Amino acid sequence: MSDRTRIILQEVTYHCYTRCHGTRNLLQGKYGKLYFIEAIKMCQAYYKFELIASEIVANHIHLVIRTLQDEETISRIMQYIKARIAEKYNRATGRTGAFWNERYGCKIIEHAEDPENYLFRLLWYIGYNPVRKLLSSNPRKNDIGFINCYLIEGYELSIPIKITIHSYFYKLGNNFAECVKKFLEYEDAYLRRLDLYFC
Q1: Given its phi and psi angles, is residue 20 left (phi above 0), alpha (psi -120 to 50 degrees) or beta?
Q2: What is the pLDDT of residues 17-54, one digit of tens each?
Q3: Is 7 within a domain?
Q4: pLDDT over 60 at 189, yes or no
Q5: Opening angle at CA 64, ends 42 and 49, nearest 5
Q6: Strand partners, 112
Q7: Residue 48 near residue 72 (C-beta atoms within 8 A)
Q8: Between vectors from CA 145 to CA 113 and to CA 64, what angle results, nearest 5°?
Q9: Is residue 1, in this structure, part of any structural domain at all?
C-alpha cells in the first residue's frame, strides 16, 4: 500500500513497485526484460543511489532503492526509470498511450516496526514473485537474479546493473557465510508460510 502523501527523504531505503496499465502483461517477453535492465543501467549512470534489489514480473516491477545524502530523490529516480521503460517499449512496438497504471507505490523500510526483519522478508518475497507467477523455478534462476548477490560473496550479475548489498545484511553475522546462513532462515520461513497458504 503506497503512502497517501509521499515522504521524500535521503539516506533511507524505499520499497517501490508499479504496475502496467490495466495490469496487462506488457513486461513479459524480450522487450520487458531488456528495457527494464536498460532503464536501470541508464539511471545508475545518471543518478547516484544504491539499488538493493530489483525484480520484474509480467505486469509489474519491484525496486528496493536506498537514496543518498545530497543526491536525487526517490521520485526523480522512479520517474526516470518508469519513463525510460515506457519510452523504449512504445518506440520499439509502435504502441501509444499510457504504459503504467498509476503512481508508483512505496514504503520506507526504516519506518517499519522492525526494519531489518521487514527487509529480509521483503527480499525473499520479491525474489519469489516470478516463481509464484510461474515465470521461474527458483529466485536464484530469475532473469535478474539479485538474490544471488546475497548468497554468493562477490557475486556479479550477468546483466549490466549493480546491486548494493544493504548494510542490514552484514548485521546478520560476523562474516559473509554467517550472514548467508541467517538470511536463508528467512527463505525457510517464507516457504513455510507459502505452504500454509496453499494448504
Answers
A1: beta
A2: 998 887 788 788 778 889 999 999 999 999 999 999 99
A3: no
A4: yes
A5: 45
A6: none
A7: yes
A8: 30
A9: no
